[in-house]
Amino acid sequence: MVNESIASYRAAATKKRRSAISIMGSLIGLVKPLLHIMLAAIILGTAGYLCAIFLTILAGQVIVHGLIAGGAGSVKTIITVMLIIAVLRGILHYAEQYCNHFIAFKLLAIIRHKVFAALRKLCPAKLEGRDKGNLISIITTDIELLEVFYAHTVSPIAIATLTSLVMVVFIGRYHWLAGILALIAYLIVGVVIPMWNGKCGSQMGMEFRTNFGELNSFVLDSLRGLDETIQYDQGEKRKEQMSE
């Protein structure tokens, strides 16, 4: 009976679950008040990654001009530029990460405020229901995980897109076929593989999340019924059930 109810609960949770694109769209919508900082993070991040990429390109230029062409003046100029962009890379990366984490923690505060405001309307009756474990998960781990989304997902996707476009144009200047090959490689590594991995792991992730919510519910019930558990000497049995 219990297994059937759990199975039906899981089926309902899966059915109600929105698509990843829909969820991401809603989460990105919350960035609107901090859009200027997000744009700054994207610009700084793109510039920083281009600095890192062009360090190796300029190193190749040093080898060409210094060892092959024998141009000492050109080598000196290139090395000076390399030193400047190496320092800039560090500064730009720090500034980008600062902006991203400022956005992330600011939005976490806003989301927590909204969640607790909703809970104040629903409590205490809502915490008597079956999904109280999921509510605890939302308040704790789920909201914490959004920090990763805002700090390491939104702007990095935009940075990767802009950086890739710049590099496709740069490589395409040498030969258009090389540019197309680079574009295909970027799409496979940056779009196809992540989407395939996400599709493969989404069901397992949802099952883990559902089980985690059920475990939270079980622990809360155990704590609230602690007097009865002690009274009827059911401590060991309860521990076994928790282990299961």
List the helices and strands and how they pair.
Layout: H1 2-16, H2 20-29, H3 35-69, H4 72-122, H5 132-172, H6 176-224, H7 226-231, H8 235-243
Walkthrough of the structure:
The structure is a single chain. The chain is mostly helical and 244 residues long. It has a single domain, classed as ABC transporter transmembrane region fold. It is built from 8 helices and no strands. Helix 5 packs antiparallel against helix 6.
What share of residues are in beta strands? under 5%
Helix content: over 70%
**How many domains?**
1
In CATH, the topology is named ABC transporter transmembrane region fold
Average predicted confidence as pLDDT: 81
Could you name the CATH homologous superfamily?
A: ABC transporter type 1, transmembrane domain
Q: Could you describe the largest sheet, including whether it forms a barrel?
A: none
Order of helices and strands: HHHHHHHH
> What value does the Rg take, in angstroms?
26 Å
**CATH architecture group name:** Up-down Bundle
Q: Report how far the terminal alpha carbons are from each other.
A: 16 Å
Q: Outline, from the CA principal axes? A: elongated
Total strands: the figure is: 0
CATH class: Mainly Alpha
Tell me the structural class. Answer: mainly alpha
Q: Please, how many helices?
A: 8
Weakly predicted, low-confidence segments: 1-6
